[in-house]
Amino acid sequence: MILSFLISNLFISSEIVDAAENRFVIEGEKAVDFTLKTVDGKVFNLSDYAGKIVIVNFWTTWCTYCQEEMEELIKFRKEANSLNVELLGVNVTSSEQSEKAVIHFVKGIDLPFQVGLDVHGEVSKTYQIIGIPTTFIIDKKGIVKKKLIGPVTSDMLKELITQ
C-alpha cells in the first residue's frame, strides 16, 4: 500500500534544486517562512501564526489520499479550536489542472481552515514535498517537530501535538 501511495502520488519537479542556494525545511530546525495567496484572494504568511502550534498540510485535488484526508482535517479543525493550534492547507497548485479548479474544490467542501495556493511550487520545493499528502507539525517556537508523508487522521494529529 505504501509503495502504491508513493507511485501514485509522486510528482517530480522539472527543476534541479541546488541545496547550497536554497534553504530547506528539516525536522528539528526553524520552519522557513512563506507567503501565499488564499483561495479567497487574501494573503497569509506562516509567520502570522507565531506563538501557536501550526499544522501545514500539502495536498492536491487529484490525490485520492488527500481527498479522503480532508474529512479528518475538517474533524481535527473542529476539535482543536481550544488547543491554540492553527491548521493551514497548502495546495500544490503548480501540479493542478488549474487554479480555478482548486478554488471550486475548496469552496465546494467548505474547508474550515486557510488554504494557500502554491502556484509556482516554490513552497513545495522549500519544504521538499516529494509525495502528497505531506503534513508538518511546527511548534510554538517555529521549530519543525514532525514531517508526515501520507494521510493523517484527527486522532494522530491530536496525539502528536500533545507530546
Describe this structure in words.
This protein is α/β, with parallel strands linked by helices and about 160 residues long. The protein has one domain (about 1-10, about 20-160): Glutaredoxin. Helices cover about 30% and strands about 20% of the residues. The protein contains five helices and seven strands. The chain has helices at about 1-10, 65-80, 100-110, 120-125, 155-160; strands at about 35-40, 45, 55-60, 85-90, 115, 135-140, 145-150. The chain has a seven-stranded mixed sheet. Strand 4 (about 85-90), helix 3 and strand 5 (about 115) form a beta-alpha-beta unit. The two termini are about 30 Å apart. The relative contact order is 0.24. It comes from Metabacillus bambusae. Keywords: Disulfide bond. Pfam families: AhpC-TSA. This is TlpA family protein disulfide reductase.
In short:
With 163 residues, this protein is α/β, with parallel strands linked by helices.
- How many extended strands? 7
CATH fold descriptor: Glutaredoxin
Mean pLDDT: 86
Number of helical regions: 5
Q: For the record, what CATH class applies? A: Alpha Beta
Largest sheet: 7 strands, mixed
What distance separates the N and C termini?
28 Å
What is the number of domains?
A: 1
Counting copies of identical and different chains, the oligomeric state is single chain
Strand order, sheet with most strands? 2-1-5-4-3-6-7
Shape: globular
Portion in strands? 15-25%
Write the CATH architecture name: 3-Layer(aba) Sandwich
Q: Unreliable segments (pLDDT under 50, ≥5 consecutive)?
A: 1-21
Order of helices and strands: HEEEHEHEHEEH
**What's the CATH H-level homologous superfamily?**
Glutaredoxin
Assign the structural class, choosing from mainly alpha, mainly beta, alpha/beta, alpha+beta, or little secondary structure: alpha/beta
Radius of gyration: 15 Å
Helix proportion range: 25-40%
